[in-house]
Specification:
Elements lengths: L1 H13 L1 H5 L13 H61 L22 H27 L5 E8 L5 H7 L9 E5 L5 H4 L5 H6 L6 E5 L8 H4 L5 H5 L1 H14 L2 E9 L2 H13 L10 H7 L1 H15 L6 E5 L3 H19 L10 H9 L3
Parallel strand pairs: 1-3, 1-4, 2-3, 4-5
The site of adenosine monophosphate has 11 residues, from helix 8.
């Protein structure tokens, strides 16, 4: 509106009417009459008025924009704060308690996080900043003689999203502080050793976040389901694993065990996607279909893992994984809790800071 009247005003002052009078009339006003001067004055006033109108409209728009930004910042803060509270509640919901039945879990659920996709991603971004600082403290602690570390054990059926967790959760922190190990079928050398040999070697050093993409649990899962070892062999492994983990915990490693649980329907969809997309084919293995066909046996094997190896020292958390972003947020919350519970401050330097500052300044 304001712009329109401005255009009109300017047309009147310097445009059509004046040009009709000929070149003289467009001059400085030296030759124009009283009426002309009055018309020019009126046009100028109109122009100024229009400019004021434009200015006012712009001020109003800027103010509205500022208010909207403040409103959305407040909403964002409330969301992030709300999700931080939900985060702690969610962790408790995911923890495996006696009597937990895996096949009764709703893999499409999002326990503890009642949020939209956009809010979930936003919360993941917010937690990422906190994770990065906590991880740096852990790293600094390790560099200055500390003995703490964190181990994230990721288990789950094919397509459950273990890789996505590594990319989207561990991707939020400095890769220098992360030690990732993916465990496949044992190599000939590994097979010559005790099944915990390769696991022990991969435990995180002080200051590190270790991540196991599959783990020693395969030795009571695939080894049992595929009959790779006799029942009395895998039977004895649960207690052995508990002792092994308790020892790691006692020497400073917080062990966070996560089972990502995907529904049969969602797994089918994801496997189909792998076969239908050239960029996903590399993730597919023909054995995935065989493992899928043995789902009931895997469910039973996982149920035993949860029943027999969820200890106070190293509890299991089962994360519904049909919603990838929920699963990523949930695991980031678990990692956040593990790091925050270490309660690490920044290390105290082994030198006199004031003295060093003085020495540095002396080199100016
Ligand atoms: P992926 O995680 O898709 O790279 O697949 C790794 C494969 O290695 C899975 O089929 C696992 O079941 C298999 N695997 C991992 N650990 C073991 C193990 N200890 N014994 C036999 N197979 C294993
Ligand atoms: Mg695979």
């Amino acid at each position: 509106m304001a712009k329109k009247s401005g255009t009109k005003a300017s047309e009147k002052s310097s445009g059509t009417k004046a040009s009709r009078k000929g070149p003289d009339a467009q001059g400085t006003g030296k030759h124009e009459g009283k009426a002309g001067r009055k018309a020019r004055q009126k046009a100028a006033e109109k122009l100024a008025k229009a400019a004021r109108k434009v200015e006012k409209a712009e001020r109003k728009a800027a103010e509205a924009e500022r208010k909207a930004a403040a409103r959305s910042a407040a909403a964002r803060e409330a969301t992030v704060e709300g999700l931080a509270v939900q985060r702690d509640a969610a962790i408790e919901l995911l923890r495996v308690r006696p009597g937990f039945v895996l096949t009764e879990l709703d893999a499409a659920g999002t326990p503890g996080f009642d949020a939209s996709r956009a809010q979930t991603r936003e919360a993941l971004g917010a937690i990422g900043g906190e994770l990065a600082e906590l991880q740096e403290r852990l790293y600094a602690h390790g560099r200055t003689g500390g003995d703490r570390s964190v181990l994230l054990v990721l288990q789950g059926l094919d397509t459950s999203g273990k890789g996505g967790i590594v990319r989207h959760v561990l991707g939020l922190v400095d890769p220098q502080g992360v030690a990732l190990h993916a465990f496949g079928a044992p190599t000939p050398e590994e097979a010559r050793h005790h099944y915990l040999w390769r696991i022990r070697r991969a435990l995180p050093r002080p200051g590190r976040i270790g991540v196991f993409d599959r783990s020693h649990y395969e030795d009571v899962l695939v080894a049992r389901v595929d009959g790779l070892v006799a029942p009395d062999v895998w039977e004895g492994r649960y207690d052995e694993i508990n002792r092994f983990e308790a020892k790691a915990v006692a020497s400073g490693t917080t062990v966070v065990k996560v089972l990502l649980w995907v529904s049969p329907d969602e797994q089918l969809r994801r496997l189909r996607e792998r076969l239908e997309r050239p960029d996903k084919l590399w993730k597919y293995a023909p054995s995935d279909v065989d493992a899928r066909a043995r789902r009931p046996a895997y469910e039973a094997a996982y149920q035993d893992v949860l029943d027999r190896t969820s200890t106070d020292a190293a509890p299991w958390f089962v994360v519904p994984a049909d919603d990838r972003w929920y699963a990523r947020l949930a695991v980031s919350a678990l990692l956040h809790r593990a790091l925050a519970d270490l309660d690490l401050g920044w290390p105290v330097p082994g030198f006199d800071v004031a003295e060093e500052l003085a020495r540095l300044d002396a080199t100016r």
